[in-house]
Amino acid sequence: xxxxxxxxxxxxxxxxxxxxxxxxxxxxxxxxxxxxxxxxxxxxxxxxxxxxxxxxxxxxxxxxxxxxxxxxxxxxxxxxxxxxxxxxxxxxxxxxxxxxxxxxxxxxxxxxxxxxxxxxxxxxxxxxxxxxxxxxxxxxxxxxxxxxxxxxxxxxxxxxxxxxxxxxxxxxxxxxxxxxxxxxxxxxxxxxxxxxxxxxxxxxxxxxxxxxxxxxxxxxxxxxxxxxxxxxxxxxxxxxxxxxxxxxxxxxxxxxxxxxxxxxxxxxxxx
Length: 271
What we know:
Elements: E1 9-16, E2 26-34, E3 40-46, H1 55-61, H2 65-68, H3 74-85, E4 89-92, H4 95-109, E5 121-123, H5 124-131, H6 136-144, H7 154-171, H8 179-186, E6 198-200, E7 206-208, H9 218-224, H10 226-234, H11 239-264
């Protein structure tokens, strides 16, 4: 089976120094870019994270400080990585929760923008968890009838993720071979930011999904408590979350200004 595509899709995986998207760093990036005509482009690059790789991380992906000391830093290859994703959709394993936010945050730190709204996202783990509730190695064995060698190598995990999705499409007739369908199937449809901190309610309004203001309208909170916006902007929230709340905050300010004018000049509209 060939994946039906209207534009390229990039399968990718990251190996990192840890799981904190703000303080940890990328040590390996691997991708397979599949084009609508079935052609593939792939590559793997190791990166010098410019911080020590913890032993616990090395125990998982087997990459040491010595392995990356001569490798380029993210800032040196950031434009190359951004170009790989240009005009493409994105797929990975647990990618909506980790790899995409991590990559976007790390690119932002070095001054590059990963344009999150311009892509559609397929999280192969979400398909697997909805259907079978297993890990990537188990998914590979279950769907592809093969053992995943070199697990937690970015290259091996990326290839396995691509093969698993192909097998999932073969196995489940209800899964449409369509990137838009798969993106919706593997994502929360009401998420506005990739992390799901801001969601859209049934009326299309933005609400918080976390914290003391959970389920409240974002614009309402910012109107009553502008300091909450400042707290979020200074806190450890992904770049796209901050971009979205800034749009809402600025929109709130515009609405507030119009209201001020109406209060000050109550007959202005009749003049």
